[in-house]
Amino acid sequence: MPDNSNARSRILASIRMSLGGSSTPEAIAADYASIPRPYTRSSVADQGALLDLFIDRLLEYDAGFYRCNRGGIATLVADILTLRDKRRLAIPSGIPADWLPEGFEFAVADTWRNDQLDKIEGTLSACAVAIAETGTIVVQNVPGQGPRALSLVPDYFLCVVFAEQIVATVPEAFDRIEATSALPTTFISGPSATADIEMTRIKGVHGPRFLDVILVV
Questions:
Q1: How far, in Å, CA of 55 to CA of 200, rounded?
Q2: Strand (E) positions, the chain?
Q3: Which is nearest to 77 in space by CA: 156, 8, 135, 160?
Q4: What are phi and psi of 213, to 5 degrees?
Q5: Domain limits, the chain
Q6: Which residues have C-beta within 8 Å of that of residue 150, sequence separation ≥ 6?
Q7: What is the residue-level pLDDT of the chain in tens, covering all 217 positions?
Q8: CATH architecture of 47-216
Q9: How many helices (H) and strands (E) does the chain have?
């Protein structure tokens, strides 16, 4: 079987050489580092303004939003699941036990197949970081967040976000996850939806149709 990755590298190297560049990894890295980046990389907004912006974006995306303190997570999870009429959720390993209310079933599903996840009522997860300007939640394959399939396959996703995890911009979010940047990472901006098919908005095409966010302050 041909090595397509090497063929691709040779083609790209040939293009760079024809444009007067270099094909060595060091030179490519230097060229990339020298690209001007005048876009906004940070914000001077205080935490209150960031929280307000994040909440505004979530509501604009038609996501559910709830707020509690650190001691009230389990109670709020129970209230939300009752409101959503859900009793059984998938969770990643590493979710704090005090987030999980009694009277519901939470199944550790890190190794579940997609067909198993498709039958579960939803997922409860933590996040790595959240972005105020885009209303985005970033989830990585680490304890408490789990494999990408957990946040993509079930129809419902409930995510716990702490106030200190919210940053203003996308570059700040990348700085936060730099140490784990090689891990599978999912960026979630509201419930999954697309209008690619005949300009008709359809939910749940490439992720959960319903998203609720608990903001812990």
A1: 26
A2: 64-68, 88-91, 105-108, 123-125, 129-131, 136-140, 156-162, 166-167, 185-188, 193-194, 202-203, 210-216
A3: 160
A4: -125, 130
A5: 4-33, 47-216
A6: 90, 92, 109, 110, 117, 123, 125
A7: 455 667 887 787 777 777 666 667 777 778 778 888 787 777 778 889 999 999 999 999 999 999 999 999 999 999 999 999 999 999 999 999 999 999 999 999 999 999 999 999 999 999 999 999 999 999 999 999 999 999 999 999 999 999 999 999 999 999 999 999 999 999 999 988 777 777 777 776 778 999 999 999 9
A8: 3-Layer(aba) Sandwich (3.40)
A9: 7, 12
Show Cβ contacts of residue 21 under 8 Å, excluding neighbours closer than 6 positions. 27, 28, 31
| Token pair recorded at residue 212 | 């609720």
Q: Residue 197 corresponds to which amino acid?
A: I
**111 vs 102: CA distance, rounded Å:** 24
SS3 156: strand
Alpha helices in 19-122 (DSSP H): 25-33, 47-60, 73-84, 114-117
